[in-house]
Amino acid sequence: DAMRQAFDSVRISGTVVIGEGEIDEAPMLYIGEHVGAGGPEVDIAVDPIEGTNLIAKGQNGAIAVMAIAEKGGLLH
Questions:
Q1: Gene3D superfamilies this protein is in (predicted)?
Q2: Across residues 15-29, what is the average pLDDT?
Q3: CA-CA 20 to 30 A from 16: which of 24, 38, 51, 72?
């Protein structure tokens, strides 16, 4: 939820091109989802959490990653 909220506060018109899966496989940040508050068109790649077991146990070491490029700039 935090990554989605952050995207929606940024002045971009983003499309998730590499995400958590197809629309019927992921609740948010799915491939094809539009994010942002409007602005330049960009492509987005996301992996909100690597280390879900660490998060569940309240431990350090989990990571979230994203990449943003001009529209058409990410291979998928």
A1: Fructose-1,6-Bisphosphatase, subunit A, domain 1
A2: 83
A3: 51
The edge-to-edge listing of strands for the beta sheet with 13-18 is 34-35, 13-18, 41-50, 63-70
Q: Which residues of 13-43 are buried (b: 16+ CB within 10 A; e: fewer)?
A: ebbbbbbbeeeeeeeebbbebebbeeeeebb
- The average confidence (pLDDT) of the chain is 89
The DSSP annotation for 6-38 comes to HHHTSS-EEEEEESSSSTTT-SSS-TT-EESSS
Pairing assessment for the beta strands 13-18 and 41-50 based on DSSP bridges: parallel
* Model confidence pLDDT, tens digit, residues 59-74: 898 888 899 999 999 9
Could you give all domains of the chain from N- to C-terminal order, each with its CATH number?
2-70 (3.30.540.10)
